[in-house]
Write a structure and sequence with these properties.
The chain is α/β, with parallel strands linked by helices. The protein has 13 helices and 17 strands. Strands 3, 4, 5, 8, 9, 16 and 17 form a 7-stranded mixed β-sheet that branches. It has a 6-stranded parallel β-sheet with strand order 12-11-10-13-14-15, with helices on both faces. 54% of the residues are buried.
Amino acid sequence: MKAVVFHGLGDIRLDDVPDPALSSEFDAIVRLTASAICGTDLHFIRGTMAGVEPGTILGHEGVGIIEALGEGVRNLEVGDRVVIPSTVACGYCSYCRAGYYAQCDNANPHGPGTAFYGGPKEAGGLNGMQAEKVRVPFAHVNLVKLPDAVSDDEAILISDIFPTGYFGADMADIKPGHTVAVLGCGPVGQFAIASARMLGAGRVIAIDQHDDRLDMARAQGAETVNFAVEDPVETVKRLTGGIGVDAVIDAVGVDAEHAHGGPAAEHPAPGAARDASPDARSDAASWKAGDGPMQALAWAVEMVAKAGTLSIIGVYPPTDNLFPIGAAMNKNLTVRMGNCNHRKYIPMLVERVRLGEVAPTRILTQREPLSDALAAYEAFDQRRPGWIKVELQPRQPGRKGNG
């Protein structure tokens, strides 16, 4: 089968690889009909999240049809159409039973910590879903059957980015009438905005530097701030009478960009890419790390009100030790963070989409066949806006990515 394969920093290829096979009675093989490219995938290629072994198939978002099932999977059938949660869980350990599926004790064969598809060895080393087929462990938990009323375009958004945005809003402890800032208006940020509104936020202030992302946020009813034009902290405080917001959702992570224009550019960048990620490609022409790995966190701590809440869903590597703990402590902030417990939210979000209460597909701006996946990666790497669905119908041989 064809798959997008990691070969090293700055080097991904569309390769022919063996089809996956069942290795446990609780496995399933899913023929994928849709996958997607996520900002987390770029972290691996840029070196801001280390540990992906050469030969790993990338991608942790998928929708498809079950082709084979182990005998231990008793709630699904071959032929069922399913969405695949990005993080992997066993369903029976104490963490899974408490809803902390991302901290499952049993899903990661390489030790503690979140297991997910297409990531580092420390995250399980599982092959990912930018491929024609995928092996799904603990399939009785890690597959969610889809109703006919939910399309592939809707379902692929529910595999990762919608639940992650909702998770961020949930951790922000939003009360009716709260004012919430969302840092980063990419796909996850857009769903954090939508989820904050779903949970009763009175105002949402969206911060980014890309006009079309800000336009999309404004179309959702958010107030927008372009940090390339104005100082985001000063602006947020001005918009809130000098108080700051009740909660901030960091939907950016380690590949954050420092302001390159406007008043915010006058302040030094808080940290360099190599400070957070020793392997970061900070001098490369392509697949280059962001130049302000702590930027979103620094702004978040400054713009949130005293005794406010900071919710962190942007990805940070274990090597990143740059958090402004002193400023946060002296404001009595509550800081909540983590990898999304996808399986906790996905059934609820599928149902809300089925009922027409949420229309998530406005975020889907590009569709590409698997044969064009490398070009789609390059577009995403250049920070061209949008969110890319990969339609898994390969048509031509692959080529090597930019090195």
